[in-house]
Amino acid sequence: MPSTTAITVPQLSRLVGLPDAPCLVDVRTDEDYEADPRILPASYRRDFRTVSTWAAEFSGAKVVVICQRGQKLSQGVAAWLRHEGIPAESLEGGFEAWVAAKAPLVSASAIPPRDEMGRTVWVTRSRPKVDRIACPWLIRRFVDPGAVFLFVDPAEVPLVADRFGAVPFDIEGVFWSHRGDRCSFDTMIEEFGLRIDALDRLALIVRAADTARLDLVPQAAGFLAASLGLSRMFRDDLEQLEAGMLFYDAFFRWCRDAADETHNWPAGGKAP
User: Fold this and answer.
1) What is the pLDDT of residues 180-194, one digit of tens each?
2) Mean pLDDT across the chain
3) Alpha-carbon gap, residue 183 to 208, rounded angstroms
4) How far apart are alpha carbons 62 and 79 in whole angstroms?
5) What is the 3-state secondary structure (H, E, C) of the chain?
6) Scanning 54, 162, 179, 226, which has its CA 20 to 30 A from the CA of 130?
7) Is 69 left (phi over 0), alpha (psi -120 to 50) or beta?
8) What is the pLDDT of residue 266?
9) Which pLDDT score, from 0 to 100, does residue 268 have?
10) Which residues contact 92 (CB under 8 A, 6 or more apart)?
11) Is 59 left (phi over 0), alpha (psi -120 to 50) or beta?
12) What is the pLDDT of residue 146?
């Protein structure tokens, strides 16, 4: 009989990267984590032994708890969270089942150091268009849901990075930027180890729009037009980022689930 307090790998993998994905909490022991220092996308590392002190962080959220095999640690933590009124499930089969299914993982060593509140902090040029919305979307959906993004004058990016402990991206001469004919979004996918077919398809669209090679993929021209339109709609870069998150969510879902779907008129007509 299926468990009512566990979620399967196929079920969870369909939620990863979506705006309504549950919070993922990795409670593997340090020994298990050090043996494979990768994490499920956008997951938080927490010590199972201190669950009573951090449970309230996830109040109001849905949570999936991951341990090595989906047994005592994740089930115990999930039960404790439910006691605190937090809807929580354990991942059936745990981290080992996720790895065996070749589901997406993030290289934890690639994630920059976090601030005193546990967030990664990033800085880039103001007035974003394509890459500077694409990269924050990728980070918040697959790496760090609470990431902070600072948009400043281009000349001030290095100094702000230094003074505020932020990671510069999408400017010349930094690690997280263009490499050859590939853009910063490509770099992040590569460095975080996010080899997902839907992200690879989205990356091609982003690259084509961001580097003025609209012939690479049919969606590039419309993608660029929408991106430029968003940049004209908002004076505040953070408001534009919030609007852009939905834009990228829609394209990610198209890349994952609807790339082969057609639309015809009259309704019910056969595709050519």
Assistant:
1) 999 999 999 999 999
2) 96
3) 9
4) 13
5) CCCCCEECHHHHHCCCCCCCCCEEEECCCHHHHHHCCEECCCEEECCHHHHHHHHHHHCCCCEEEECCCCCHHHHHHHHHHHHCCCCEEEECCHHHHHHHCCCCCEEHHHCCCCCCCCCCEEEEECCCCCHHHHHHHHHHHHCCCCCEEEEECHHHHHHHHHHHCCEEECCCCCCECCECCECHHHHHHHHHCCCCHHHHHHHHHHHHHHCCCCCCCCCHHHHHHHHHHHHHHCCCHHHHHHHHHHHHHHHHHHHHHHCCCCCCCCCCCCCC
6) 162
7) alpha
8) 82
9) 66
10) 3, 6, 7, 8, 9, 70
11) beta
12) 96
Q: Report CA-CA distances (Å) from 153 to 125, 156, 175, 237, 243.
A: 6, 5, 19, 12, 21
Tell me the C-alpha distance between 105 and 195, whole Å.
8
Q: Is the four-CA dihedral 82, 84, 86, 92 of positive or negative sign?
A: negative
Identify the segments of the chain with pLDDT beneath 50.
272
d(Cα 5, Cα 121) in Å, to the nearest integer?
34
What is the β-pairing status of strands 106-107 and 38-39?
antiparallel
How many angstroms separate the CA atoms of 262 and 148, rounded?
38
Measured distance CA(147)–CA(167) in Å, rounded? 11
pLDDT tens-digit map of 165-223:
999 999 999 999 999 999 999 999 999 999 899 999 999 999 999 999 999 999 999 99
- Residue found by looking up tokens 């829609």 in the block: 250
